[in-house]
Give the backbone structure.
Amino acid sequence: MQMGPKTLTVRAILVGGIVAVAAGFAVGFLIGSNQNVAAARLSVDGSEPQGVDFSPVWKAWNLLNENFVPAAVATSSPIATTTSGLDQQKVYGMISGLADSLNDPYTFFLPPTQNTQFASDMSGSFEGVGMEIDVKNGVLTVVSPLKGTPADRAGIKAGDQILKINGTSTAGLDVTTAVQQIRGPKGSIVTLTVARSGWSTPKDIQVMRDVINVPIVTTTARPDGVFVITFAEFTSNSPDLFRNALREFALSGDTKLVLDLRGNPGGYLEAAVQAASWFLPTGDIIVTEDYAGHQPNVVHRSYGYDVFNKNLKMVILVDGGTASASEILSKALRTYGIATLVGTDTFGKGVVQELFPITADTSLKITVARWLGPDGAQIPHSGITPDVVVPVTDADIAAGKDPQMDKAVEILNAQ
């Protein structure tokens, strides 16, 4: 089929198969995909490290066993100070303290209950309020309310700071414990005390919990010739969904694309690499995992699907809820001049986590590397500043306006 000069050329690979997705990790954080590196780390035998004096630990252990009396005792059971159950709790506490000593909000221990909860997160369906949270600058912060969920409907916004959960302060609370407190059965209500930029005082927001099923990719062919793909999260099946969306875009005859990554909290690293590969030639660096000398760096390069010609005009929408994998994709496509970024600063999660089993029912999530963009610079903790900064106010939302989308369309039409 012959194409005119303004037609978007797409090669046959777009409608064919897609490279199989490598194993990754899900909602809320990313995992490195170098299996050899992971295997090397998992070979640790648990023996005592050389040159470290552990005698203070065992002295403290024995003192606790010999002297500890609980401040409050349940009348239904006697005081237990040396039972195997209490000893196990002390072991868990030691591991938690070891992780906490690194002062990294992304490195923490998952005891059995939290570990089970984390496994449930990866299933993609759960009962709660539907938002990604993280600890930023020591404060529990909303990365993104997922679109169409109870949190979104209640008015929770990216960047909101959660000061209390049901009246209890979140100071010093780790993410896993916070998630456990916010979640609950469908139909129940959780009250979040929220501080927001522009508010003089915090406000209580009540959110009714529901079953959360995240929509991954949606498309809109606007009448003005701009095609919009909204990418909510990088899941294991999102490469196929994104490929189908791009095919729909190509068949529409449009040449102007808005990729909406606002509120996309990230997910599988491999899914971001796959997405970038539709726009980049083989071998272009998408992101590097920098292990700071602990292991060889891992460079992720484009698979070279590169199906679009120079007639493609593209804008990526970002905001404070754009994190991790979505920041990687945004930075890569901007670095190579494929897309213009419009919106507000992204979240700024430029680090890699891996999950390591400690026992059969516990795990340790550890920050193991930093994300480096194609230019070799780390994704800053302050977030990526877009090329065109466009804020969205509460008044805009109340009026049903979207100035960021309006600016994206304006830029595309001007091109």
Summary: Residues 28 and 267 are 6 Å apart (CA to CA). The longest strand covers residues 362-372.
